[in-house]
Design goal:
The protein is of the alpha/beta class. It contains 19 helices and 24 strands. It has three domains: about 250 residues, Glutamine Phosphoribosylpyrophosphate, subunit 1, domain 1 (4-Layer Sandwich), CATH 3.60.20; about 190 residues, Rossmann fold (3-Layer(aba) Sandwich), CATH 3.40.50; about 150 residues, Glucose-6-phosphate isomerase like protein, domain 1 (Rossmann fold). Helix 4 packs across helix 5 and helix 9 runs parallel beside helix 13. Bound molecules: 5-amino-5-deoxy-1-O-phosphono-D-mannitol (M6R).
């Protein structure tokens, strides 16, 4: 995915655009570029690498000052991340500039057609074709930019296949930015005498918190004095306005070296916020936003969870909670696999899609597939105004606030809270748990922020341990029951941040193969269930002994006071005692801290790990 900013108003556009890009850099950081329009002259600048490279280039050779501009930070799909492939791309005349997020699937055919017609394309990107198509359509609509650019964009969009957010400007109009979207995010920021376009509100939150959610297949004309939205045919479109309920400080580092550190530290608050307003004075859960009636919920006979990456791990934990509390069969699917097999869905299947960003294309495609099979759809999402909630029947928002670091942390914990709430709510509605049992669990959930806080207070030994392991090549993670997805999550964090071989296993599977990996000194992190789950607990203690006997260096995460693991733990990380199903809320945190510290010790930028983007808006 890429980050996009557009601006028209009274301020120096370059400053607004570059500041906006800095807030969107988490979306892609292979290259960055800007276009500014001043006095009928369209100036562009672009550089491979992080935004800092572009900033240096702009400082050396500042473009003319203008009040209209756009910028792009790229996560490369077509063509290597070099200066030439960086956006913006221009047409043959140099009067139209375009930036793009997504993939234009029919670009090869379009490119061939353009080249046959004599256009000279200079990059390897799919995006550049759009600039040249706009050039042709502008000539065809025979208008000046004021009338023509939006119409040309609509005509071009009708020819494109795939996913795209496009933003274009024309040297002939210094009060017009045109945007378009299909399957890829774009929001409008509504200011006073100025307006903004961006992939994410974080880009303009400093200037306005009033936003417009653009729908699917819409084109927006942005002028300093107003915003017009149509569909691809030019018919006026209905839009949804909303107010962003967080401010600029939430999108800044707040004294931390990395967003990831800040986001880890914010977890107690994020967990508390996600519970807020969902528990009535009567102790019952109220999840009205779900927009699925109690009658419909009673009719549900199967739940399928679809998600990717860390959100998938939240789904794996949800399965345990849903089956235990709500008594419903629950399957968990990688969203990217879901629509490629013959999953059995019906109108009584509830599909729950979990996505922090609400823009992950694999998750969106899974939701659309489930919709075709007439299943009920519920989203769990962190980003208001994103696509996923719009495509589901109902949504439960996690109130984590903006998550900027690529590695998901606070979003994961709040996703867990959301799935616990849903599982308990279904139990309440279907009567699979007594009211007082649901209430008792809700009360325990309400105490989780303080437990997470307690974990955070005791993380210094984990940081020390992480630094001491910076030279290792591999770390394994073991868990059972809900500790298994936690092990997977610990391994994912280490892979994406420290670029180390890390794998999570169900501890019971060890003897079926993975135990062959154990060698002298290999660090193995083991997530131990609470002692109250005696059989599980004892089995994992045996697993620890087995790997230790074969030379593993054991790092054991167990509830405080668990003396039985002490003799077998080379390092013991104690977490507060909580019920088994809620334990991932406390056992995940040390693994986040561990991965973050180890990666930092290796000199990696934990906010922007190599090859990754915050949300993957392509399949
Ligand atoms: O926005 P989403 O929750 O749909 O994103 C899903 C994954 O791409 C995401 O969780 C990814 O695995 C994170 N980088 C993990 O830290």
């Amino acid at each position: 995915m890429c980050g996009i900013v557009g601006y028209v108003g009274g301020r120096p556009a370059l400053d607004v655009v570059v500041d906006g890009l800095a807030r969107l850099e988490y979306r892609g950081y292979d290259s960055a570029g800007v276009a500014v329009l001043a006095g009928g002259r369209l100036a562009t600048a672009k550089r491979a690498g992080k935004l800092v490279n572009l900033k240096e280039a702009l400082a050396e050779e500042p473009p003319p000052a203008g009040t209209l501009g756009m910028g792009h930070t790229r996560w490369a799909t077509h063509g290597p991340p070099n200066d030439r492939n960086a956006h913006p791309h221009t047409d043959c005349t140099g009067t139209v500039a375009v930036i793009h997020n997504g993939i234009i699937e029919n670009f090869a055919a379009l490119r061939a057609e353009l080249e046959d017609a004599g256009h000279k394309l200079r990059s390897d990107t799919d995006t550049e074709a759009v600039a040249h198509l706009l050039e042709d359509e502008l000539a065809a609509v025979d208008g000046n930019a004021r009338d023509g650019l939006a119409e040309a964009m609509r005509r071009v969009c009708r020819r494109l296949e795939g996913a795209f957010t496009l933003v274009a400007v024309h040297a002939g109009d210094d009060d017009l930015v045109v945007g378009a979207r299909r399957n890829s995010p774009l929001v409008v920021g509504v200011g006073d005498g100025e307006n903004f376009l961006a992939s994410d509100v974080a880009a303009f939150i400093e200037h306005t918190r009033d936003a417009i959610e653009l729908g699917q297949d819409q084109v927006v004309e942005l002028r300093s004095g107003g915003v017009t939205v149509t569909d691809f045919e030019g018919r006026p479109a209905e839009v949804t306005e909303y107010h962003v309920d967080w401010d600029v400080s939430a999108a800044e580092k707040g004294g931390y070296d990395y967003f990831m550190l800040k986001e880890i530290a914010e977890q107690p608050r994020a967990v508390a916020d996600t519970l807020l307003g969902r528990i009535g004075a009567d102790g019952r859960l109220h999840l009205d936003e779900m927009r699925i009636t109690d009658r419909e919920l009673r009719e549900v006979d199967k739940i399928i969870i679809v998600a990717c990456g860390t959100s998938y791990h939240a789904g794996l934990i949800a399965k345990y909670a849903i089956e235990h509390w709500a008594g419903l069969p629950c399957e968990v699917e990688l969203a990217s696999e879901f629509r490629y097999r013959d999953s059995i869905l019906s109108p009584t299947t509830l599909v729950i899609a979990i996505s922090q960003s609400g823009e992950t294309m694999d998750a969106l495609m899974a939701v659309r597939h489930a919709r075709e099979q007439k299943a009920k759809l519920l989203g769990i999402c962190n980003v208001n105004g994103s696509t996923l909630p719009r495509e589901c029947d109902g949504v439960l928002y996690t109130h984590a606030g903006p998550e900027i670091a690529v590695a998901s942390t606070k979003a994961f914990l709040t996703q867990l809270v959301a799935v616990y709430l849903i599982a308990l709510y279904i139990a309440q509605v279907r009567g699979t748990k007594w009211g007082d049992e649901v209430f008792a669990m809700v009360q325990l959930l309400e105490r989780m922020p303080e437990k997470v806080d307690k974990v955070l207070e005791t993380m210094e030994p984990v940081r020390e341990l992480a630094r001491s392991l910076a030279g290792e090549r591999c770390v394994l993670f073991l868990g059972r029951h809900v500790g298994f997805p936690v092990a997977l999550e610990g391994a994912l964090k280490l892979k994406e941040l420290a670029y180390m071989h890390a794998e999570g296993f169900a501890a019971g599977e060890l003897k079926h193969g993975p135990i062959a990996l154990i060698e002298q000194g290999l660090p193995v992190v083991v997530v131990v269930p609470p002692r109250a789950r005696d059989v599980l607990h004892d089995k994992i203690v045996s697993n620890i002994q087995e790997i230790r006997a074969r030379g593993a260096r054991t790092i054991v995460i167990a509830e405080e006071g668990d003396a039985s693991v002490q003799p077998y733990a080379d390092t013991l990380i104690s977490v507060p005692a909580v019920p088994t199903l809620l334990q991932p809320l406390v056992t995940t945190v040390p693994l986040q801290v561990f991965a973050c510290e180890l990666a930092t010790a290796k000199g990696h930028d934990v906010d922007q790990p190599r090859n990754l983007a915050k949300s993957v808006t392509v399949e």
